[in-house]
Each structure stands twice: as structure tokens, then as C-alpha cells.
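Hello Y.,

Per our agreement to keep a running log of every chain we model this quarter, I'm adding this entry. I've kept the format consistent with earlier entries: sequence first, then predicted structure.
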Amino acid sequence: MRFSAFELRELGKAWFAISLAFAIALTGISFSSLGKIFTIGFTIPFIFAGLTVGIAFLGHELSHKFLAQKYGCFAEFMANTQMLILALICSLFGFIFAAPGAVVIHGQIRRDQYGKVSAAGIIANLVMGIVFLLLMLFVNTPELKQFLLYGCNVNSWLAIFNMLPLMPFDGVKVLMWNRKAYFALAAACVGFAVIVQLVAA
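Predicted structure for the entry above:
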């Protein structure tokens, strides 16, 4: 994959902001306790979020980019600064609404190729979620199991969220390309989510 210096900064900015937002929500920090993000104790939740949410986000976006470039298109991630700020504000109220940015694609691309590029991000989240799930079979440490389970949940949530058949989500682009592919991928996302919940129980 080819990256510009601008794109690397955009990816870093989005990864940092999303990790920070989820860490804030996980630790229950609010406006009145905002100073806690500057303490040593906040480091672990931030790293925890960066290695779960951050990796899920990067894997999703870079999968779009990889396939688009393979089809000969220009593809570059651009962060959405306004939405990153919104995510940080929402996290201080205990919930997350995250739309950190998107891969901008330019060039001649067929509808089926565009549909596959859109599906690539969702498939990446399913693959990463399955990897987290399989790793859980080989660990006994409760803290590590919690980390891996969170990785499963985040990737499951991202996959389902992006399958929504509404603009600007990936789902609508997959649906416009191939209805059978859309429903098969949607079923896989729901099936994985059910498995994760059964494991969590």
C-alpha cells in the first residue's frame, strides 16, 4: 500500500482520538473529572482501547484502501475532525458515536469493484474478530480474556454498524452491487455477534 505523509497524519489523528474517546467512556470520565486523563492510571485504558478499537478501525479502513489501490484507483484516508470531536464529547456523557473518517477513492471503478471495496472493511472486522475469539481459547488470564473479548465485541459492532443499508455506510454500497452478497455478509455479521454473546455469557 502507498501512503502519503498527509494520510499517515490523518490515520494517526483518527486512531488517537478514537482510542481516547473509548478509553474515556470505559473509565466513566465526565466533564467534572476530565483531569483524570492526564494521570498514570488512564494509560492502561488508553492502550487497551488503542489495541482493540484502534486496530479494528485501522483494519477496516486499510482494507478499503488496499483493494481500491489493487483496482488501480487513488485511495487515501481522510479523518473527519468534526466527527472526532463529537466522539470525544459524547464519550464524556458515557456513550460513543464514532465516524472517524473515510477512505476517499478516485479513478475508474466498476460497480462490482466498488461493492467489493466496501465489503472489504466489513470482512476485515469479521476476520479480526474471529482472531480475537480464537486467541481466547489459548489464554487463562482473566484480564487478557477480557481484552480479547472486548476486541471481539468491537469488531462485531463495527461490522454490523457498517452493514446498515443507509448512506454513507458500506452496507448500502454492497447492496447496490449484489443483494445475495449483502444478505450473506449480513448473516455472517449477525452470526458472529451471536457467537460472541454466547462466549461472553
